[in-house]
């Protein structure tokens, strides 16, 4: 589902020469099970503490700050709670060490229910100023780099002075002169760099209503949860501030649980791999000022886990450290096998890269087995099941911004994602799966759907963004083939939004649920295969990418709806028109058993309402896929030597075919969406407005100014054949929407068609009135209104055409409105209103 925004937040966080780096030797705290509480208490009391009297800078004896009543949590830092305050005791070997700070909205107040949303993430270091005995928390912002010894390196370093986020007076010194600081205000006050108030649409933190709920230390990280209350931002006019993720909800205050995670970066940075935009990976990067390219060169590294072979000589070997996901204790028991299945589904892809057992699923240990195990410990990656009605899941990961090494991940499965799976599967796949034709879905089927979602989210945690090219890689014939779909799945990558196979027809026996596909195996091999040398890596990766030229299943594409119909969301198949034709047949089948599938005697119609809405939504999506053929182009992300062009305009006949399909199937009322046996169970009225809303949206998409400008430019470049021009589109729409003006089709114009015709005329009139000089659209709209006016007059004139009074008045009204729009003052020849 939903993608994690690392590429924008952590882009260019690379350490420069001069920054005390992670290669500094550190004596890490031992794991918790090797550090009993007694030792921590003893560490507070032993005679190695500095017991000097209070210094001139206010430093007190240790025991006066960390008192007998204090509680202590050992780990990366010693985290103390004493007298209502939180103290960090920072080992001296943890000073000046880069650490990643991630802020996340864990819970929100009513009206802002979107757990997991991120604030800004940054790299920090803790620095001791010995002269005035203060600890500085500094942000490391090295978006620029130069090679050490390069003359420009000094200027680059001078341009990247680390900002001071907050300064803390040293309250005391602990063992080995470890400074102790009160960090309470860091979490209970407004600190711009760590704040999520802009995301919440808030004005400021209220410290009196803000509390540190939890502060825990682990060997590699420190985790703090803060119950934070904000005063809401007052409404303001204009667009003079950053947008809030969540607008006002009527609350006087906004309360959220904000989770701060500080993770130590690895001592030995992983060898990075350069990004290639033909293969989809999340990235980190920096600007290289030592480049020989006669420009500032942007260097990007992919994000990936550190996998090293146990046996470097073996073609396939277990890794030294596998990727392990722990299935959280709160995951419902009946779904646990399917969650594990979704995780380990990636094992086959890693075998292509030379690793066996590269990714494993394990149960989180029972508290009696391991009381110190915690999902928030950065040593553990986990899948968590969250009790919320949000219909989603998230696959974030924490990575080293210097190299792209993924350090850990906590996948979040929101409980109501099972509703999303049910709804999608019912409207897309139920005609081909009898198990789904009677709700609720059986647990074995729901488990398969959960495994699919988990596999998708695990893909994000492995470094993969969405690949929207993958769902268009297969032909309709292949999607209907049992043999083909069993081998290759229903889309070339599980990282697409192809969802379920709505193209297959009853009797085909084709697979319906996506699996790890050929692109996924290709991308894993490209990112994770080990090479003997830098030269071998460069040659090996180039050879892998070359496979894309002859195999469209291996290609990558960002979402590009409205321009490239092969990179849409929620679609399937290389031919959107044929795929949608088959998809609509399945929707009609769903409508036929909708009432029977959604309820029994004694139940209300809530589920029927929900599934009818899903049916309408699927209709909109599928017809929208066809609309994007018009004025579209195909993009093949090729480099020099791969191909002579990257962009290819869609053939005119395909565009015209798409418009004809929409006229027939979308602009004529879809009868299965207005079935009385469904609607009269749900509403007294509203169907006409619903159908009009869909049609108006589709018209707006087709007549979008950017689409028409693109069509005009494509037409101007056409060197052979007849292009499909904007004027051709508008005339085809007019002829189809006003087909009743054709004497052979003349007759009554029903309610739905009258609504559509008025909406279409209104759109043209709006364009005539628009103050635009950047496209042909106003001129085309004016010319088409003149043509329509003539056609309507002719349609009203013949005596042998019998129309009901409503249809007659409708056409007369359109005639008058068009004439008024073309000539408001009645001075132009040929547009006067005809007499009745």
TrEMBL record:
Keyword annotations from UniProtKB, A to Z: Signal
Source species, domain of life: Bacteria
Pfam families noted in UniProt: DUF4953 (PF16313), DUF5117 (PF17148), DUF5118 (PF17162)
Residues in EcxA zinc-binding domain copies: 440-742
Keyword Signal: yes
Keyword hit for Transport: no
Stored CDD domains: ZnMc_MMP_like_2 (cd04276)
Domain DUF5118 intervals: 60-108
Extent of the signal sequence: 1-25
SUPFAM superfamilies, per the entry: Metalloproteases ('zincins'), catalytic domain (SSF55486)
Ranges where the DUF5117 domain occurs: 116-309
Family annotation (InterPro entries): DUF5117, DUF5118, EcxA_zinc-bd, Zn_MMP-like_bac
Biased composition (Basic and acidic residues): 34-47
Region (Disordered): 21-66, 552-574
PANTHER family, alphabetized: PEPTIDASE M1A AND M12B (PTHR38478), ZINC DEPENDENT METALLOPROTEASE DOMAIN LIPOPROTEIN (PTHR38478:SF1)
Protein name as it appears in the record: Glutamyl-and glutaminyl-tRNA synthetase
Origin species: Tautonia plasticadhaerens
Organism ancestry: Bacteria, Pseudomonadati, Planctomycetota, Planctomycetia, Isosphaerales
């Amino acid at each position: 589902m939903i993608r994690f925004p690392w590429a924008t937040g952590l882009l260019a966080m690379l350490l420069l020469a001069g920054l005390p780096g992670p290669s500094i030797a550190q004596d890490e705290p031992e794991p918790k099970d090797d550090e009993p509480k007694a030792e921590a208490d003893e560490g507070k009391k032993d005679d190695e503490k500095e017991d000097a009297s209070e210094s001139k800078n206010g430093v007190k004896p240790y025991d006066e700050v960390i008192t007998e009543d204090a509680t202590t949590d050992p780990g990366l830092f010693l985290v103390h709670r004493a007298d209502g305050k939180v103290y960090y005791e920072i080992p001296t070997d943890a000073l000046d060490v880069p650490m990643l700070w991630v802020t996340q909205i864990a819970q929100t107040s009513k009206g802002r229910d979107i757990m997991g949303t991120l604030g800004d993430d940054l790299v920090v270091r803790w620095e001791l100023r010995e002269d005035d005995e203060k600890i500085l928390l500094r942000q490391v912002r090295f978006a620029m780099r130069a090679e050490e010894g390069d003359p420009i390196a000094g200027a680059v370093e001078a341009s990247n002075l680390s900002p001071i986020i907050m300064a803390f007076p040293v309250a005391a010194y602990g063992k080995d002169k470890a400074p102790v600081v009160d960090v309470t205000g860091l979490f209970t006050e407004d600190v711009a760099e760590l704040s999520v108030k802009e995301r919440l649409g808030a004005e400021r933190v209220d410290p009196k209503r803000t509390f540190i709920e939890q502060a825990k230390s682990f060997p590699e990280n420190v985790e703090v949860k803060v119950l934070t209350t904000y005063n809401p931002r007052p409404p303001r006019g204009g667009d003079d501030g950053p947008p809030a993720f969540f607008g006002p909800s009527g609350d006087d205050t906004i309360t959220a649980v904000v989770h701060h995670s500080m993770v130590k970066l690895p001592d030995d940075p992983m060898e990075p791999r350069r990004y290639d935009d033909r293969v989809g990976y999340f990235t980190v990067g920096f600007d290289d000022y030592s480049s020989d390219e006669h420009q500032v060169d942007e260097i990007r590294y992919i994000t990936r886990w550190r996998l090293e072979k146990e046996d470097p000589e073996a073609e396939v070997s277990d890794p030294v450290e596998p990727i392990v996901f722990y299935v959280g204790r709160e995951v419902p028991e009946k779904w646990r096998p399917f969650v594990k299945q979704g995780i380990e589904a990636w094992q086959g892809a890693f075998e292509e890269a030379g690793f066996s057992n590269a990714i494993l699923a394990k149960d989180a240990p029972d508290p009696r087995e391991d009381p110190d195990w915690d999902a928030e410990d950065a040593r553990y990656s986990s899948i968590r099941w969250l009790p919320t009605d949000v219909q989603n899941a998230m696959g974030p990961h924490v990575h080293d911004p210097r190299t792209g090494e993924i350090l850990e991940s906590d996948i979040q499965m929101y409980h109501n994602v099972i509703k999303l799976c049910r709804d999608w599967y019912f409207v897309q796949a139920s005609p081909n799966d009898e198990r789904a034709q009677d709700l609720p879905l059986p647990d074995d089927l729901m488990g398969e759907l959960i495994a699919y979602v988990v596999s998708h989210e695990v893909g994000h945690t492995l470094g993969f963004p969405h690949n929207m090219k993958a769902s268009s890689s297969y032909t309709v014939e292949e999607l209907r083939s049992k043999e083909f779909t069993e081998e290759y799945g229903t889309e070339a990558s599980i990282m697409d939004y192809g969802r379920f196979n709505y193209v297959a027809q009853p009797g085909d026996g084709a697979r319906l649920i996506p699996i790890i596909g050929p692109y996924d195996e290709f991308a894993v091999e490209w990112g994770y295969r080990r090479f003997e040398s830098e030269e071998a890596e460069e040659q090996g990766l180039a050879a892998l990418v070359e496979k894309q030229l002859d195999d469209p299943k291996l290609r990558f594409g960002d979402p590009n709806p409205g321009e490239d119909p092969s990179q849409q969301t929620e679609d399937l198949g290389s031919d959107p028109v044929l795929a949608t034709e088959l998809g609509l047949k399945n929707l009609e089948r769903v409508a036929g058993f909708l009432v029977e599938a959604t309820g029994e005697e004694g139940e209300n119609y809530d589920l029927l309402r929900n599934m009818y809405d899903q049916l309408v939504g699927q209709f909109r999506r599928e017809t929208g896929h066809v609309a994007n053929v018009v004025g579209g182009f195909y993009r093949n992300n090729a480099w020099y030597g791969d191909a002579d062009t990257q962009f290819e305009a869609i053939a005119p006949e395909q565009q015209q075919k798409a418009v004809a399909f929409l006229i027939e199937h979308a602009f004529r009322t879809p009868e299965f969406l207005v079935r009385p046996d469904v609607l009269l169970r749900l509403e007294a009225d509203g169907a006409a407005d619903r159908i009009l809303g869909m049609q108006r949206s589709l018209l707006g998409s087709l007549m979008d100014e950017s689409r028409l400008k693109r069509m005009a430019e494509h037409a101007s470049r056409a060197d052979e054949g007849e292009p499909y021009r904007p004027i051709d589109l508008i005339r085809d729409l007019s002829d189809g929407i006003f087909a009743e003006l054709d004497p052979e089709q003349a007759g009554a114009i029903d309610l739905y068609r009258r609504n559509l015709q008025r909406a279409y005329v209104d759109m043209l009139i709006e364009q005539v009135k628009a103050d635009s000089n950047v496209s042909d659209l106003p001129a085309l709209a004016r010319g088409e209104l003149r043509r329509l006016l003539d056609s309507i007059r002719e349609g009203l004139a013949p005596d042998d055409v019998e129309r009901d009074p409503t249809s007659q008045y409708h056409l007369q009204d359109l005639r008058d409105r068009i004439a008024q729009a073309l000539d408001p003052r009645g001075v132009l020849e040929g547009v006067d209103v005809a007499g009745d």
